[in-house]
Amino acid sequence: ARPGRKLEVNIAAERLERIVQRAGRQLSLGATASAALLGATRLASTGGVSRSLPIALGTIGSALAIRLFVELNSSDKSGR
Question: For the whole model, what pTM was predicted?
Fold first, then answer.
């Protein structure tokens, strides 16, 4: 072993971390919105549930999809 400082590798990964976090958030929003909308259609096609349940689930899924679209549009305009 040689005397002196040890080899250090400093990688500025802050930008990469932000990209991965944003991608993860967008994927989770998309998956949750898709599942909610699919669940709403499945519930609406069955006859044994109240009409308010598929409407509520569809509203939640639509709100999540709108949030995803807004986030995608804002991230495209903010320096990508």
Answer: 0.73
